[in-house]
Amino acid sequence: MKRLFFCPICKSELGREAVDFPFCCERCRLIDLGNWSDGSYAIPSDEQVVEDEEPNRLLN
After folding, report:
1. Any idea what the CATH number is for the domain that residue 29 is in?
2. Does the pLDDT at position 60 exceed 70?
């Protein structure tokens, strides 16, 4: 029996033999990459990130 897969971006049906698997096309693959790079996807953590108010400066 052949298992059905769906593109995580547009939800269209695709086969495992798709060139851009697990995406249906390059467009969806690039959309997903953009989501990772702009921070839309994040791995949850209990740690809090504290940023310095003033960045470290190099001494001359």
Report:
1. 3.30.50.10
2. no
Total number of domains in the chain: 1
Whole-angstrom distance, CA of residue 8 vs CA of residue 25: 11
Cis peptide before 55 (omega within 30 of 0): no
Residue 26 lies in a domain: yes
Other beta carbons within 10 angstroms of residue 16's beta carbon come to 10
Has residue 43 got a pLDDT over 90?
no
Burial 41-56 (b: 16+ CB within 10 A, else e): eeeeeeeeeeeeeeee
Rounded to two decimals, what is the model's pTM?
Answer: 0.64
Instruction: Show the domain range for 32.
Output: 5-37
